[in-house]
Amino acid sequence: MDGRTGLPVVGMVGAGQLARMTHQAAIPLGQSLRLLAEHADDGAALVAPDVVVGDYRSLADLRAFAVGCDAVTFDHEHVPNEHIAALEADGVNVHPSAAAAIHAQDKSVMRRRLTESGVPCPRWTTVGDAADLDTFAAEVGWPVVLKAARGGYDGKGVWVVGSAAEAAPVLASGTPLIVEEKVAIRRELAAVVARSAFGQGAAWPVVETVQRDGICVEVLAPAPALDPETAEQAQALALRVAADLGVTGVLAVELFETDAGLVVNELAMRPHNSAHWTIEGARTSQFEQHLRAVLDYPLGSTAPTAPVTVMVNLLGGPDDVEPKSIDERVHHCFAHWPDVKLHLYGKQFRPGRKVGHVTALGDDLETVRARARAAADYLMNGGAL
Amino acid sequence: MDGRTGLPVVGMVGAGQLARMTHQAAIPLGQSLRLLAEHADDGAALVAPDVVVGDYRSLADLRAFAVGCDAVTFDHEHVPNEHIAALEADGVNVHPSAAAAIHAQDKSVMRRRLTESGVPCPRWTTVGDAADLDTFAAEVGWPVVLKAARGGYDGKGVWVVGSAAEAAPVLASGTPLIVEEKVAIRRELAAVVARSAFGQGAAWPVVETVQRDGICVEVLAPAPALDPETAEQAQALALRVAADLGVTGVLAVELFETDAGLVVNELAMRPHNSAHWTIEGARTSQFEQHLRAVLDYPLGSTAPTAPVTVMVNLLGGPDDVEPKSIDERVHHCFAHWPDVKLHLYGKQFRPGRKVGHVTALGDDLETVRARARAAADYLMNGGAL
Fold first, then answer.
1. Degrees to nearest 5, angle at CA A205 with A199 and A208
2. Of A29, A63, A68, which is closest to residue A50 (Cα–Cα)?
3. A214 and A323: one domain?
4. Which of A104, A285, A339, B189 fits B255 for a cystine, CB–CB 3.0-4.6 Å?
5. Chain B contact present for A39, CB below 8 A
6. Is B30 in Cβ contact with A47 (below 8 Å)?
7. Does residue B293 have a pLDDT over 80?
8. B238 with B171, same domain?
9. Is B30 left (phi over 0), alpha (psi -120 to 50) or beta?
10. Which letter does DSSP use for residue A23 in this model?
11. Whole-angstrom distance, CA of residue A239 vs CA of residue B279
12. With b meaning 16 or more CB within 10 Å and e meaning fewer, what string describes B114-142?
């Protein structure tokens, strides 16, 4: 507890955009997020006063950071699971727990657990060599999807391969791998929920996520033309997974919609790109909800604030963008789209890097989507207006 | 400009709740508010990293603070006007300017200017002694309202007096005073607008403000049952005052609704309590808009996000409140009112002190108002639920 305010102190390991937006959500709760940053100029470290620079792979750094925190949580999956467990053993109030977090850190553990629980997944297996791959592909057909069991994100650590020969360099790398059937996808959805330590769950409307080169570029909330039964099924599935795995905080369940129904693609146990739209589009944002959940506060209303919300990621454009100044592009963006909400993460712009997002809200999907896309495109790529 | 992000740096003199909420609004714009705080534990200083502790009455402190700021603005009216002018003479980009700010600092200057411009005001005059008061009261009738020309807020510096004798202690104090007729008020309204340096104006819906002991306790947005013509007249009046006085940033025009129409009560040139509802209730909050205006960005949409928004201030309750822990009261508040949004300012609780506010939104005024009031009452006064 903060002795002055009588309110709790949450520590977040990692100081990227998720921590930045969580700090923003902490302010109205009377709090100030404590950060373990890799670098003093990480996006969240630029806007919050209580920053420790340290190494999330160092148990000593994590232990020192946790002192005085009422709860410790994470803005990424890369803290070694054994360190999370060690903090718990120390008596630190960590969310999610090591036992839950492992399912967002290791795809092999995640697939095994979900399959055992009867949660629909693509057919999959662990794979050691080319023979394993051939055996699996004989059953499900080529191409198949190879995935690094640990450490992948934004399309990194995923390879679609048409033969064992094509997979040879990945197999030779020694990275622990799983292989999955290549599911015939209609589209991708995400069911994002939060679960408190007490066990209360709350689900936001199910969204459609649009990927390009494995990176989420756009989120449509709610998922257009999703039948209510499937939407409810997706929410129920995410709430069940959260409860089964003992997740505390936000859980994002990335889903494939297929002709045969929904299958789970990935899990993330932290605020997630697929729910950035909730800042303006839901009564309670995922960032506020994550704080409530890890502090074991009752959860907030997830009701939408508008019929349609569209979020478009800002991915760094070319270096020779005109006008060159981001400040000048922000000026023109505000003039042309006074209703579009901007979120910049304090990052250096690099081609393809997630440096922010924009959100638009309204009644008509195509209008809202067109405005959000045009604003995002102009901010990153400039050009004539 | 911040060399790393390419985005502007705004400095705010004062680090109370207005600065705290402005920092919150700066984060998504890719910025971090720079603060000149009186104390290191001021509400905004607890949540922002770029804090200078100094004296807003010291020109040297103000000058040192302004170095590197793309714009300097204020969370209160107490910076000496001559210091604002001196900063301008230095070439600092100050908003509002000294010439505009004086109208929010000196009621005599404000009344003279508005009266000259034909803006409806209560009848008024400056007053030096009991004879002045008797002359004025002979014209408008007792009681009259004495006001300190400078430095009043939240009902302080205002005295309703029924005779010159009753006014004697105030008259004897030497404080420069004005006197106004006591207007027969139907209710109080506020028209809040923003104006950019370029001259763009934007108005939020006109609201009703409810006062208790001179302190705003509740804001209803939009003002219930206000005829559209009067609402438009109030917005036009506020935009005209902003343009006439050259205001940059947010301007709040406090109004009395009377049988004879609207009259202006007070002006404030900064984010204002009567527009805290815009954080959730409007597409662009007053805090974001203030930043846009002082940076001469185009202004954001002021469209409401719900038919009805009600804001209720949290005024510190008695010391023996039960449950004693504010954290415990927040728990119960969240459980009972999952849709009500909480804003705590990081202040020590003292009876009657503004320590936060809550906001509720919806379709039906009475339902929304009841929920916001009940949540605020419980947070401050505790009791059974």
1. 125
2. A68
3. yes
4. B189
5. no
6. no
7. yes
8. no
9. left
10. H
11. 30
12. beeeebbbbebbebeeeebbeebbeebeb
If contacts are CB pairs under 8 Å, which of residues 50-79 in chain A contact chain B?
A: 51
Would B101 be classed as within a structural domain? no
- CATH code at B367? 3.30.470.20
| Residues, chain B | 385
Question: Both A177 and A191 in a single domain?
Answer: no
What distance in Å separates the CA atoms of residue A263 and residue B382, rounded to the nearest whole number? Answer: 47
**Among A52, A75, A94, residue at a domain's last position:** A94
Residue of A nearest to B348 (CA): A5
Cα-Cα-Cα-Cα dihedral sign, residues B126, B130, B133, B138 = negative
Q: Is the CB of A334 inside 8 Å of chain B's CB atoms?
A: yes
Residue A213 lies in a domain: yes
Closest chain A residue to the Cα of B8, Cα to Cα: A327
* Segment 284-303 of chain A within 8 Å of chain B by CB: 284, 292, 297-301, 303
Beta bridge partners of A53: A37
State yes or no: pLDDT of B122 exceeds 90. Answer: yes
A255 reaches B (C-beta below 8 A): no
Same domain flag for B165 and B207: no
Of B30, B292, B338, the CB nearest to A299: B338
Coil/strand/helix, residue A302: coil
Tally of helices (H runs) and strands (E runs) in chain A: 12, 17
Q: Is B212 on the interface with A (CB under 8 A)?
A: no
Question: Within an 8 Å CB–CB cutoff, is residue A354 touching chain B?
Answer: no
- In this predicted model, what pLDDT tens digit does every residue of B16-30 receive, in sequence order? 999 999 999 999 999
Quote the number of domains for chain B: 3
Full-model pTM: 0.97
Tokens representing B83 are 């210091």
Orientation of helix A164-172 relative to helix A130-140, angle to 10°: 140
Alpha carbon A30 to chain centroid, angstroms: 25
pLDDT tens track for A335-377: 999 999 999 999 989 999 999 999 999 999 999 999 999 999 9
Distance CA B30, CA A60 (A): 32
The whole-number average pLDDT for the span A33-38 is 98
Q: Which helix (H) or strand (E) holds B383?
A: none
Residue B158, burial from CB neighbour count under 10 angstroms (0-12, 13-18, 19+) = middle
For residue range A91-112, list pLDDT tens digits in order: 999 999 999 999 999 999 999 9
**B157-175 pLDDT, tens per residue?**
899 999 999 999 999 988 8
Please give the structure tokens belonging to residue B377.
């009452």
Q: B127 and B59, same structural domain?
A: no
Q: Are residues B153 and B223 in the same domain?
A: no
Using CA coordinates, name the residue in chain A closest to B307.
A305
